């Protein structure tokens, strides 16, 4: 394999790589072995710790998995609500930022910069405190209050991210698109709505799916605040009852990893498909957007 | 807003402690992330495999799960540390995967012809790396790496909320539950405290990006 760092290996380099592979494998296996030995030494492989999770004939098995399924459902509910709301508000913000004049743009940019800089966990907690201390009644919304603290907090952050994705998507279109729309007599607004946005959404699709991964991960932030019982908090409560935090957190982590891995693969697939259809490749804000 | 202005000293010490979490997280994740990136681009297959699995696992797992696993799981196997150490370690592990990806994509953005040219004029591996590849890679690493670090600053609030003591969140708890202040002005002060970290960092990044920007 030749790349920027090293050439096609010759016989000597191949031999060195083979030795390196063996040495590295021994070290990695050794470290894994050490961890496994430590876990075994502390009785973490004991069947009573694992059996509620993996043994269908265990008394708690059905209950534990029913609770985990409820937690997962709560996580997915919050994530779907948050991405839908963010998509609507984010698109409006993004379009406002592009279409408003210089003066009108200032408050939009200020809002975007403010919520982009605020940690999501603070946004969620802020919504909770704001609702509680001003006595705003949000009980008319379906679902628990905790769900909406989470959804609103997530929406505040993610709608400004999506606003930036929308802007990047529209800006990535060739200028000729809007010029042609104006030339056939469309207004700027019509050109945006009927020509630019539909194309932008197509190129944005991979970035939007990646953002869903970020939102899914961020739903678990409420577990720290204890406002809403989603998957991680549900798992934590189960592990307090069964006294097996390592085992339950392992399963919870695995569920998150499988879902998010599948979603990121889907994003890659969509991106590849879009780019082979002769369109510009998907818009990605940057690696940091996915890090939040 | 008296709650904030009367307790400026408390907020200041909380701010410094929160800033400390950010800085330790930055140093740790840069070191670990560079190491993982080195694994991912190395010619040794087993190291590449390790780097790839690390990034796949850590990137798809929420920071809170990593944090809970360390804080509640590790004591079960006899590893006891303060929440501060656990919190910063979780932050470092989580961020390292993103740092690794930023560095790797930067290295991959240098075209192979550059290194081939360096080799063909007789530069050694380390010469071509330090004189030709890295100076170019660095320029495309800066923007994504900066975003990763800023995201990490924001994630440090999760560690704070988990309860490490002495930071902005504990100022909030202290002022609201022990001293009975209303929550809204105090949490506003905490939010402003975090903005004082993230907004200057973002401005600095934008400045640096313009400095190192190249047209390829």
Automatic annotation (TrEMBL), chain A:
Q: Name one GO biological process term.
A: amino acid transport
The signal peptide, as residue positions, is: none
Give the UniProt subcellular location, in the record's own words.
Answer: Cell membrane
A cellular component term from Gene Ontology for this protein is: ATP-binding cassette (ABC) transporter complex
Task: Cite the entry's keywords alphabetically.
Answer: Cell membrane, Membrane, Transmembrane, Transmembrane helix, Transport
Which Pfam families does this one have? BPD_transp_1
ABC transmembrane type-1 domain ranges (all copies): 72-267
Predominant cellular place of this UniProt entry's protein: membrane
What GO molecular functions are on record for this protein? Answer: transmembrane transporter activity
* Bilayer disposition of the protein: Multi-pass membrane protein
Q: Which residues cross the membrane?
A: 17-40, 74-96, 108-131, 146-166, 200-225, 245-263
NCBIfam families cross-referenced by the UniProt entry: HEQRo_perm_3TM
Please report which protein family the annotation says this sequence is part of.
Belongs to the binding-protein-dependent transport system permease family.
What's the protein here called?
Amino acid ABC transporter permease
This chain's source organism reads Nocardioides ganghwensis
């Amino acid at each position: 394999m030749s790349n920027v760092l090293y050439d096609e290996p010759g016989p000597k380099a191949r031999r060195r790589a083979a030795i390196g592979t063996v040495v590295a494998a021994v070290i990695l296996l050794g470290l894994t072995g050490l961890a496994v030995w430590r876990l075994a030494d502390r009785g973490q492989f004991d069947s009573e710790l694992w059996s509620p999770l993996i043994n269908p004939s265990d008394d708690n098995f059905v209950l534990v998995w029913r609770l985990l399924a409820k937690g997962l459902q709560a996580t997915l509910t919050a994530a779907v609500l948050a991405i839908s709301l963010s998509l609507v508000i984010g698109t409006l913000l993004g379009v406002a930022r592009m279409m408003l004049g210089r003066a009108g743009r200032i408050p939009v940019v200020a809002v975007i910069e403010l919520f982009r800089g605020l940690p999501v966990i603070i946004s969620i907690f802020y919504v909770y405190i704001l609702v509680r201390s001003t006595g705003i009644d949000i009980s008319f919304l379906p679902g628990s209050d905790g769900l909406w603290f989470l959804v609103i907090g997530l929406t505040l952050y993610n709608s400004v991210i999506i606003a930036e994705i929308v802007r990047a998507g529209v800006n990535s279109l060739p200028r000729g698109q809007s010029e042609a729309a104006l030339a056939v007599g469309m207004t700027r607004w019509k050109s945006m709505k009927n020509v630019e946005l539909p194309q932008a959404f197509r190129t944005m699709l991979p970035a939007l799916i990646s953002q869903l991964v970020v939102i899914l991960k961020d739903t678990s932030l409420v577990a720290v605040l204890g406002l809403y019982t989603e998957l991680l908090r549900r798992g934590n409560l189960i592990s307090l009852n069964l006294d097996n935090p390592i085992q339950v957190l392992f399963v919870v982590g695995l569920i998150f990893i499988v879902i998010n891995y599948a979603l990121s693969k889907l994003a890659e697939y969509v991106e590849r498909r879009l780019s082979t259809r002769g369109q510009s490749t998907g818009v990605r804000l940057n690696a940091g957007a996915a890090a939040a | 807003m008296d709650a904030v202005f009367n307790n400026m000293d408390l907020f200041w010490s909380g701010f410094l402690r929160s800033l400390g979490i950010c800085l330790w997280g930055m140093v740790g994740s840069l070191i670990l992330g560079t190491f993982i990136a080195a694994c991912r681009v190395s010619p040794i297959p087993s190291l590449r495999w390790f780097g790839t699995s690390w990034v796949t696992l850590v990137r798809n797992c929420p920071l809170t799960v990593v944090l809970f696993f360390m804080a509640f799981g590790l004591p079960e196997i006899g590893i006891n540390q303060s929440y501060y150490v656990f919190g910063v370690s979780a932050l470092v592990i989580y961020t390292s995967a993103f740092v690794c990806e930023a560095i790797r994509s930067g290295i991959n953005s240098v075209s192979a012809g550059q290194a081939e040219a360096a080799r063909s004029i007789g530069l050694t591996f380390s010469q071509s790396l330090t004189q030709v590849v890295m100076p170019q890679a660095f320029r495309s690493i800066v923007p994504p790496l900066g975003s990763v670090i800023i995201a990490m600053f924001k994630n440090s609030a999760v560690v704070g909320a988990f309860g490490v003591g002495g930071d902005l969140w504990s100022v909030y708890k202290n002022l609201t539950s022990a001293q009975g202040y209303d929550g809204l002005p105090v949490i506003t002060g905490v939010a402003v405290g975090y903005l004082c970290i993230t907004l200057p960092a973002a401005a600095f990044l934008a400045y640096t990006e313009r400095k190192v920007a190249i047209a390829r």
